[in-house]
Every structure is written in C-alpha cells, then in structure tokens.
TrEMBL record:
Keywords assigned by UniProt, alphabetized: Signal
Pfam family, one: TctC
Keyword Signal recorded: yes
Family note: Belongs to the UPF0065 (bug) family.
Signal sequence coordinates: 1-22
InterPro entries for this protein: BUG, Bug_dom1
Protein name in UniProt: Tripartite tricarboxylate transporter substrate binding protein
Source superkingdom: Bacteria
UniProt organism field: Cupriavidus cauae
The organism's taxonomic lineage, starting at the top: Bacteria, Pseudomonadati, Pseudomonadota, Betaproteobacteria, Burkholderiales
C-alpha cells in the first residue's frame, strides 16, 4: 500500500510539473506572425526581416502570414481573438492600433487592454513622392499647382484611415490646399499607379518607397517627420519646406494577445531585442529606410498608450471617419 501511495504521489507530481515544463519549452512549434497589410509595404518588409532573423539565428520557426484589409484592422482583430499561447503574434503599427480605433466605427479593440506590447521594432518617417518624370521637383511645386487648381492633384495612399492618409491631410491643411485622395489596398498597388502616372503623388512610409526611389522610378519630395531620414539624408522635411506644424512618423512593433503568459512575452522580447541589436539587423533595417530603436516592454507599452490618447484628439479635430 505504501509503495502504491508513493507511486500515485509521484505521478501526480509529474502531472503538476508538466505544464510548467511545457511553458519553459516555448517555442515548441511554429509561431505565426500576422502581417496586417499586403506584401510589399513597409509592414510586410520589416515583419519578414524579423521573422527571417528569428528563424535563422534563434532557430525558431516564425511564419509570416499576410492578413490585409480595412486599414490593417482585420489582422489585428484576428490576433486579439487568438488564444494567448505565444504562437499567434502580429506586427502592429500606429495606423491600425492607435489611429484606426478612433476612425473606424466597427473597430472595438483597445491596444492597451486587448493586446500585450511585446517589443518595438523600428520607426519610419512618412514621405511624399512623385513619379520620376513628374513636373513636381519639390513641395513648393505641389503647393503652387494645388492652389492654381484645387482638388486636381491626386495622391495615392495605402488606404483610408492610415497614419499615411492622415499625414497627407495634415499637410494639406497646413499648406492651405486641397488634394484628391485615392486610397488603395496597400502601398504596393498605390506605388505601381504612381510609377505609371495614374496618380500625381504617393504618400508612403520610407520602407515602402525606398526600392523604387533607388531604382529611379520615384522622386522623393519631402518627409513628414521632424528630422530627415537617415536612409535618405538629402530629402528635406516638410518643416524645412515651411510647414513646421507637420510632424508625423509611424512605428512598428510586435504584439501578442492579452493574457499571453508573462514568461513567454519576456522570452520573446529578449530574443527580438537581441536580434535587433546585431549589426546585420541594424544595417538591414536602415537599408529599408526605417530607423531601429530598442525599447523596454514598459517603454513600448507607454508609447502605445500615449499615442492612443494623442491620436484620439488629432482624429477628432480632423473630423475624419471611415465606415
């Protein structure tokens, strides 16, 4: 009887320890990284850089999965609803996390309650570009033409309600001009139409447009951030062009569903930050036109919460809504 009791206790002990062992073994299977925009845009480029680095260097299997739609909110909502296991992540950014909830009437998530901000990856200026054969050589040319014929200049963006869209509207208000917005389903489609001359301008993140600028198919006119892009140091800011009130950039970071185990979040954050600090990743991110910046989890969570409150005011003052 005593031996049987000891065997039973040992079995119970093993069962109690098993879940802890399973947690510490994370990741024990492939991790899905949701990309809430189509292939070819800034979010897609940075997501794949991170996924490839984790797969190659950390020996984790990280699978990028594009889930575009509704300004990036469909992919975010999918991960909000996912099991908090650490195997469902999303590359979020200012667009779909802190701007979209104030623009889209159907968006119900709160980034500080429904998701865990794991780690900041990079930030990037937004830029205004024109086709290489455009008559617009600088922002002054655009403003002059728009004042001569209000509403005649068309600009493409990756979609309604994105930070990029709002950056263009903020610039338009600052310059006292009216531009015609043509929303697309992602940056790549907008870029192809800009190159073809079907729109006069495109507003995009630097990573989205970098390759076509280097190829000589697009001309960079200005960035909307307070400082110039490290990757394109010759491109002036809108502030330098006379519009100091325009200071808009966007950030990218990895998020997990709320209630994801703390030990999983900590392990993920530590590994991503370790990889982001390597010279190879710093160079790769710069080559794509983004700016790497390491943050602690608290710093990143505080940034998300601060921007969430800030953009509520910006959106309300702009009067913009998206059905």
């Amino acid at each position: 009887m005593k031996k049987a009791l000891l065997a039973l206790l040992a079995a119970c002990g093993m069962a109690a320890v098993a879940p802890v062992q399973a947690d510490t073994a994370w990741p024990a299977k492939p991790i899905r990284l949701v990309i809430p925009f189509p292939p070819g845009g800034g979010t897609d480029i940075l997501s794949r850089l991170v996924a490839n680095q984790l797969t190659q260097s950390a020996k984790w299997t990280v699978v990028p999965d594009n889930r575009p739609g509704a300004g990036g909110t469909i992919g975010i909502a999918e991960v909000v609803r996912a099991a908090p296991s650490g195997y469902e992540l999303v590359m979020g950014q200012k667009d779909n996390l802190v701007v979209a909830p104030w623009l889209y009437k159907t968006v119900k998530y709160d980034p500080s309650k429904d998701l865990v901000a794991v780690t900041h990856v990079a930030y990037t200026p937004i830029m205004i570009v024109a086709p290489a054969n455009s008559p617009f050589k600088n922002i002054a040319d655009v403003v002059a033409a728009a004042k001569r014929a209000p509403g005649s200049i068309k600009y493409g963006s990756p979609g309604n309600g994105t930070t990029i869209h709002l950056a263009a509207e903020i610039f338009s208000q600052a310059a006292g001009i009216k531009l015609l917005h043509v929303p697309y389903k992602g940056s790549n489609a907008a870029m192809m139409d800009a190159i073809a001359g079907n729109v006069d301008l495109m507003v995009a993140s630097v990573p989205s447009a970098m390759a076509q600028i280097k190829a000589g198919k697009l001309r960079a006119l200005a960035v909307t951030s307070a400082t110039r892009s490290t990757s394109l140091p010759d491109v002036p800011t809108l502030a330098e062009s006379g519009y100091k009130q325009v200071d808009v950039s966007t950030w990218y970071g990895i998020f997990a569903p709320a209630k994801t185990p703390r030990e999983v979040v900590d392990k993920l954050a530590a590994e991503v930050n370790k990889q982001l600090a390597t010279p190879a990743m710093i160079q790769a991110i710069h080559e794509q036109g983004a700016e790497p910046k390491l943050m602690s989890q608290k710093q990143f969570a505080d940034l998300v919460q601060s921007d969430y409150k800030k953009w509520k005011t910006i959106v309300q003052e702009s009067g913009a809504t998206v059905e």
